[in-house]
Design goal:
Elements: H1 2-16, H2 32-39, H3 48-69, H4 71-88, H5 99-107
Helix pairs in contact: 1-3, 3-4, 4-5
Length: 126
């Protein structure tokens, strides 16, 4: 999950700077300040605190990139992003929070998208 989030941040950063975003080919040409921020999305250790810190940083960077693309969108997403970042840290019992528990908390915070139909059933996977 962290790697996928980080990859999306890299793609958006490359696109914003006019670099190739295909398979991260332009990442080495990003400004040093952006590369320094991206370095903070790589956990130094595999303990829950380091993973949570990297995940929270990646969420913050995703919010920054989204703000460049669509300021109205990030206004809508900032609170759910904050909830995901908070939940990513550690639960009260000391165990890492699961992405599913974070998403359950976020679901109630999103406003419905206009002209959207609720999904009532999913097609089976072959």
């Amino acid at each position: 999950m962290l790697e996928g989030l980080r990859n999306q941040v890299v793609v958006l950063s490359c696109q914003r700077h006019g670099l190739s975003s295909h398979q991260g080919r332009g990442v080495d040409q990003l400004p040093p300040s952006v590369l320094a921020q991206l370095a903070d999305t790589l956990p130094a250790h595999l303990d829950s605190a380091a993973l949570a810190a990297a995940y929270t940083t990646a969420l913050e960077l995703l919010a920054q990139e989204a703000e460049h693309l669509d300021p109205a969108l990030i206004t809508r997403l900032r609170k759910p992003f904050a909830t995901l970042g908070t939940t990513a840290r550690v639960r009260e019992d000391g165990e890492p929070a699961t992405p599913r528990s974070a998403l359950r908390r976020v679901e109630g915070e999103l406003e419905p998208v206009k002209n959207s139909k609720p999904v009532t059933e999913c097609a089976p996977v072959p």
